[in-house]
């Protein structure tokens, strides 16, 4: 009882222990803010890692596998999957309008199927905007400008159909969607939107001339691929095509934005010779002949030996229903593929050979980083708590020194040693509780307004920690996980109690007579 | 004056008019590092119920030490070894082989290895456990100190009721009203009824000492131990404090052991004893 009274009195009348409270508050806030921002950042990164890949990828690289439509149907019929679509993945060299070549990773996709699996349309950059994006207070985004609406609306339509007309009134042709960093003409500025830079072409005499091109409007790239050699040979013949650009996308992963080019599935299948084809029976000579069993005529043997080789895709990707774990997804995909393979013995890669990877497998490094996050936070947390424990200890030590005589008085009035120790422990707990609650409250306040605070720091002191030119996320991603907040809160209280425990123990061991003589 | 040391071995049951406190052969030695500083050499003293005894003695003679021991705030030396001095006259008997009588005053010499005892109302305080000692201090004893020793953060009223809180522990909730009423009465009686919400720092010395006395009496103890209660006050205020104590004694019937070197205090006591060279000497 008297412990509660004294705790209350000390809470309201003592300045020094309030420092302990502030220390707890600051450590709690530091840890919780760090945890929230780091967690938010990693989760945002992980989400970007899932863009354009779906939840699971079934791959047979380069030469691809047949009957993919059947596999897509099997997946879509299954309960675990919401959508599936075939993809052809291949390497290519492209030449940009200013003449520079660059290596890219091609993805041949079926627009609506690919959108159902990956929602790529959400990541298409060039579109008309009504509202500026989060940090673009001055409306510097060219997508906002009056008069551009029509162009951007058309660019968005073109992205949806992956086609573009080369000129007014002309028919649409298959078109590519480039990662936004592929060309180097788009530069992300300080508010996280892209400025479009007119490209310059370097002439042989060393001078430069501007190239009047805006990729989604009139850009074209020249694309060279080396299809797999025909008939199992080793001499591959490069194929070069020009393809207009429909739009550009931003996935949030620099690697993807720098290297990926989406092209229409059929178009890529065609130039890679992966489409349905009549094939000559292996070993048949061009001049070999046979007799037609019906007419008795002599005809080229190739026709009789020819067989229809089904079209191929290098991958099938699928979107799983919400809540399915990567392990469940991988497992179910294997089962579905095994059934599929059983129907086509000898025609497609065996279930043991096919490559099945979930988005988690594809983003192994990111996932590992997220998993390490907790360990890292706990490490920081440990250090912060350790420091706070000592701070609280020092403050309570001094406080108990100052209160030595009062301890003697209480003992003379009949207080027990544990009773006296309880004063400091409950006082520590109270300070810890108040400090931790204030710390959590401050964290919530700061984390919720972190972007405003950051903007203010930027405008007041020129301090830019989160530069959208460097990071993909325009806003600082952050969220407070309630369970984390609770953990930090309890640890904050525990810190204070532990810090108070040693001085409390000392106060209990004090000789009451000496305490009373204490001046 | 009667000294208990006179026939310690003869008594097995308390006499009919047993004193409230019987102190026998009390010894206390402080340790300053490796140096032992003996302060009490075998103090024996009886205090009857309702009696007021004044203890006089030079500064440093061990008066406060004696009070602390009687009040259960400290423990006496456990074993009485090599009893060197006569309990009555202080004669140094070192070197004598188990003397039967004191060569100086002829009182029977105490046996070797006798234990000290403080008997309060038939209970031996020296053999109480730490818990029992806490209870003893909370219920049976009230302390008053020279420097008041109030808790600076608490109000006057809280300073008085804190004793009741300590005594009742968690059960205080049910007796809080009683305790507050009694504290109010006591403070009223001391003329502090209108200052219940003040802090000790806002009171004069005399007022603080009266608050301290009220605190000492909140649990209705049988024994009040006062360590130079007027030592820090001017003569007039000191006299007021003594008046107040005399009143209380009349009202509640209180046994008091009062340390002082103020002759005015000694004058008002029923009996005066003198502590000198670590033993009680008759006054
Ligand atoms: N904790 C201690 N350690 C060593 N010596 C002490 C201690 N407490 C008291 N003393 C010594 O014991 C003696 C008696 O002290 P005290 O009982 O306060 O005397 P009084 O109250 O009569 O002035 C003094 O000489 C004092 O210095
Ligand atoms: Mg003294």
Protein model, in words:
The complex is a heterodimer of chains A (519) and B (283). Chain A has helices at residues 2-13, 16-50, 68-77, 111-118, 149-161, 215-218, 254-259, 265-271, 301-305, 326-343, 359-362, 364-402, 404-412, 417-448, 450-461, 482-509, 512-517, and strands at 56-59, 65-66, 81-95, 101-109, 163-165, 172-174, 176-179, 186-188, 194-196, 200-202, 208-210, 220-225, 239-249, 260-264, 277-279, 289-291, 298-300, 307-309, 312-313, 315-320, 355-358. With 519 residues, chain A is α+β, with helices and mostly antiparallel strands. Chain A has two domains: 2-46 and 367-517, no CATH class; 82-275 and 311-328, no CATH class. In chain A, the strands form seven sheets. A six-stranded mixed beta barrel of chain A has the order 3-4-14-7-13-12, surrounded by four helices. Chain A has a two-stranded antiparallel sheet with strand order 2-19. In chain A, α2 (16-50) packs antiparallel against α12 (364-402), α3 packs across α10 and α12 packs parallel to α16. The longest helix of chain A is centred in the last third of the chain and has 39 residues, at 364-402. Chain A is elongated and about 130 Å long. Chain B contains seven helices and ten strands. In chain B, the strands form two sheets. In chain B, strands 6-7-8-3-9-10 form a six-stranded mixed sheet. In chain B, strands 2-1-4-5 form a four-stranded antiparallel sheet, with helices on one face. Chain B is globular. Chain B has helices spanning 63-70, 130-139, 156-168, 172-189, 205-217, 235-252, 263-268; strands at 21-32, 35-47, 52-57, 117-120, 123-124, 141-144, 223-227, 255-259, 271-276, 279-282. In chain B, α3 packs parallel to α5. Chain B folds into two domains: 19-78 and 121-281, P-loop containing nucleotide triphosphate hydrolases (Rossmann fold, 3-Layer(aba) Sandwich), CATH 3.40.50.300; 81-114, no CATH class. Chain B starts with 20 loop residues before the first strand and ends with a strand. Mean pLDDT of chain B is 82; it is low at 1-16. By secondary structure, chain B is an alpha/beta fold. At the A-B interface, α1, α13 and α17 of A face α2 and α3 of B. The structure holds adenosine-5'-diphosphate and magnesium ion (MG).
């Amino acid at each position: 009882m008297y412990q509660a009274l004294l705790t209350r009195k000390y809470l309201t009348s003592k300045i020094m222990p309030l420092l302990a409270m502030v220390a707890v508050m600051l450590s709690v806030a530091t840890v919780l803010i760090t945890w929230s921002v780091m967690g938010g950042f990693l989760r945002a990164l992980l989400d970007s890692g899932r863009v354009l890949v779906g939840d699971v990828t079934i791959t047979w690289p380069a030469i691809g596998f047949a009957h993919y439509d059947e596999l897509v149907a099997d997946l879509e019929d299954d309960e675990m999957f919401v959508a599936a679509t075939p993809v052809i993945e291949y390497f290519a060299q492209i030449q940009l309008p200013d003449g520079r070549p660059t290596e890219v990773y091609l993805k041949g996709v079926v627009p609506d199927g690919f959108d159902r699996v990956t929602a790529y349309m959400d990541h298409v950059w060039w579109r008309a905007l009504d509202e500026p994006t989060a940090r673009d207070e001055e409306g510097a985004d060219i997508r906002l400008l009056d008069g551009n609406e029509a162009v951007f609306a058309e660019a968005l339509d073109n992205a949806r159909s992956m086609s573009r007309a080369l000129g007014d009134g002309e028919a649409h042709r298959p078109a590519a969607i480039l990662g936004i960093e592929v060309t180097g003409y788009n530069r992300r500025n300080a508010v996280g939107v892209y400025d479009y830079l007119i490209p310059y072409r370097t002439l042989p005499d060393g001078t430069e001339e501007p190239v009047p091109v805006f990729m989604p409007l009139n850009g074209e790239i020249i694309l060279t691929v080396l299809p797999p050699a025909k008939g199992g040979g080793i001499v591959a013949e490069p194929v070069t095509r020009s393809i207009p650009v429909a739009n550009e996308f931003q996935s949030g992963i620099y690697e993807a934005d720098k290297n990926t080019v989406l092209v229409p599935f059929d178009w890529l299948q065609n130039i890679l010779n992966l489409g349905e084809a009549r094939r000559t029976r292996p070993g048949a000579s061009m001049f070999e002949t046979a007799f037609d069993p019906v007419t008795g005529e002599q005809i080229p043997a190739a026709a009789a030996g020819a067989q229809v080789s089904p079209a191929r895709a290098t991958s099938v990707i699928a979107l799983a229903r919400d809540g399915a774990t990567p392990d469940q997804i991988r497992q179910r995909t294997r089962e579905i593929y095994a059934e599929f393979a059983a129907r086509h013995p000898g025609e497609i890669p065996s279930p043991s050979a096919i490559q099945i990877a979930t988005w988690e497998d594809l983003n192994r490094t990111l996932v590992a980083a997220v998993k390490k996050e907790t360990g890292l936070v706990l490490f920081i947390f440990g250090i912060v708590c350790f420091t706070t424990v000592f701070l609280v200890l020092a403050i309570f030590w001094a406080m108990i020194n100052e209160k030595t005589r009062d301890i003697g008085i209480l003992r003379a009035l009949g207080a027990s040693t544990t009773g006296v120790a309880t004063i400091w422990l409950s006082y520590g707990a109270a300070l810890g509780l108040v400090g931790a609650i204030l710390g959590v409250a401050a964290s919530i306040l700061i984390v919720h307004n972190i972007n405003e605070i950051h903007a203010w720091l930027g405008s007041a002191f020129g301090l830019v920690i989160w530069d959208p030119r460097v990071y993909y996320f325009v806003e600082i991603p952050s969220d407070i996980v309630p369970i984390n907040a609770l953990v930090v809160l309890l640890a904050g209280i525990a810190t204070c109690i532990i810090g108070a425990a040693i001085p409390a123990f000392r106060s209990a061991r004090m000789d009451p007579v000496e305490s009373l003589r204490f001046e | 004056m009667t000294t208990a040391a006179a026939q310690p071995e003869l008594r097995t049951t308390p006499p009919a008019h047993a004193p409230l406190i019987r102190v026998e052969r009390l010894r206390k030695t402080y340790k300053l590092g490796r140096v032992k500083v003996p302060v009490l050499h075998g103090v024996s003293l009886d205090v009857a119920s309702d009696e007021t005894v004044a203890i006089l003695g030079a500064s440093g003679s061990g008066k406060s030490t004696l009070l602390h021991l009687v009040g259960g705030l400290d423990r006496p030396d456990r074993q009485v070894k090599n009893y060197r001095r006569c309990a009555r006259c202080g004669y140094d008997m070192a070197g004598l082989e188990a003397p039967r009588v004191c060569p100086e005053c002829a009182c029977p010499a105490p046996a070797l290895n006798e234990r000290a005892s403080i008997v309060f109302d038939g209970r031996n305080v020296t053999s109480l456990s730490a818990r029992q000692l806490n209870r003893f201090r909370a219920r049976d004893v009230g302390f008053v100190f020279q420097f008041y020793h109030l808790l600076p953060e608490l109000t006057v009223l809280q300073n008085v009721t804190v004793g009741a809180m300590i005594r009742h522990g968690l059960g205080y909730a049910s007796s809080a009203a009683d305790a507050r009423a009694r504290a109010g009465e006591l403070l009223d009686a001391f003329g502090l009824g209108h200052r219940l919400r003040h802090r000790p720092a806002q009171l004069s010395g005399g007022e603080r000492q009266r608050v301290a006395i009220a605190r000492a009496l909140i649990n209705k103890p049988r024994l009040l131990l006062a360590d130079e209660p007027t030592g820090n006050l001017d003569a007039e205020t000191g006299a007021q404090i003594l008046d107040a104590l005399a009143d209380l004694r009349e009202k509640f019937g209180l046994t008091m052991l009062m340390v002082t070197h103020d002759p005015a205090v000694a004058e008002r006591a029923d009996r005066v004893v003198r502590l000198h060279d670590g033993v009680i000497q008759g006054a």
